[in-house]
Design a protein that fits this description.
- This protein is an all-alpha fold.
- It has two domains: 2-69, no CATH class; 76-132, no CATH class.
- Helix content is 58%, strand content 0%.
- The protein has helices at 2-20, 38-49, 58-66, 76-86, 96-113, 118-122, 124-127.
- Helix 4 (76-86) packs across helix 5 (96-113).
- The radius of gyration is 19 Å and the shape is flat.
- 7% of the residues are buried.
- The model is unreliable at 130-135 (pLDDT under 50).
Length: 135
């Protein structure tokens, strides 16, 4: 639960920075690994990665806290059920770009409602693989 709270706060921080970004100014974003207290980082390094703190790369910290977004197994059957019940093509839209844009928006909303929106960012190809399509 602590990981999930941390990553939600970090994402809110990133959205705030993005709002401040202009063509001439790009605010510095503190890396994920530096947003946690030194003592907590040391304990995570010691017990979770079994490495000294100075040997842990930023990619490890990002993956470590992203695990907080995963509230269980990667349940693609659940995603398939959600997608088949929530998504539909609006035939009134004239062009393909509108269809795709609307479907992508609906998909993200459906996953967000189930707190599975992280799947779009972490596993987008699996969401659209042929195994998950309806026959």
């Amino acid at each position: 639960h602590e990981k999930q709270v941390f990553i939600e706060k970090y994402e809110a921080y990133c959205r705030q920075l993005s709002a401040l970004e202009t063509a001439f100014f790009r605010p510095f974003r503190i890396p994920v690994g530096r947003c946690e207290e030194d003592e907590r980082r040391r304990l995570i390094a010691m017990f979770d990665s079994c490495k000294p703190l100075d040997e842990i790369a930023e990619a490890y910290w990002t993956n470590y806290f992203w695990e907080g977004q995963i509230a269980g197994e990667l349940d693609f059957d659940k995603v398939k059920t959600i997608m088949s019940s929530k998504l539909s093509i609006d035939t009134r839209l004239a062009n393909a770009d509108s269809h795709v844009s609307k479907l992508a928006h609906e998909m993200y909303q459906a996953l967000d409602k189930e707190t599975m929106e992280w799947m779009v960012q972490k596993n987008p190809k699996k969401l659209f693989s042929s195994k998950n399509r309806r026959n």
